[in-house]
Amino acid sequence: MKKVSYIAIIIAGLGFMLSSCLKDLDTRPLDDNEITAADVFDDPAAYREFLAKLYAGLAISGQQGPAGMPDISGIDEGFGQYLRGFWYHQVLTTDEAVIGWDDQTIKDFIYHAWSPSDVFVTAMYYRIFYQISLANEYIRE
Fold it and tell me: Which of 39, 85, 94, 130 is the most exposed place for a label (fewest CB within 10 A)?
């Protein structure tokens, strides 16, 4: 009798383990206003537009001019611009250039006294990983 109950438990366990969520993970958002990658990339021209955004992200900081719709919220839109941040990190940490103005913690770069909490370091980190996530999404599609 013990053997039969063990076999029944094993069969029940295998039944639970071998069953899967059939199409339970292939869901769509409940909100009809929500746009997914499948919706965006239905049009072949969307690939070209997304690639343009990848390259534009190296030079611009958002969707509108200097004070509107930034790509990265929570930081100054000017600090979140890739080429500006790249120049700060590459040039100001050497003796190649000197900044004559005191833009928040910019002089910390000249004196080699920046920290991970510096606004320029944080903005550059956010911009780099934003660009990486866009590039990964483009490759994935």
Answer: 94
Nearest to 67 by CA among 85, 50, 80, 53: 80
CB of 131 closer than 8 Å to CB of 139: no
* Domain residue extents for the chain: 30-140
- 19-59 confidence digits (pLDDT tens): 666 666 667 777 778 878 778 888 889 899 999 999 998 88
Q: What does the alpha-carbon distance between residue 81 and residue 66 come to, in Å, rounded to a whole number?
A: 11
Task: Tell me the whole-structure pTM to 2 decimals.
Answer: 0.70
Question: Tokens 């295998």 sit at which residue?
Answer: 14
Rg of the chain in Å (alpha carbons): 25
Instruction: Assess contact for 54 and 134: CB atoms under 8 A.
Output: yes
- Cα–Cα distance, 76 to 61 (Å, whole number): 10
Tokens of 90: 């590459």
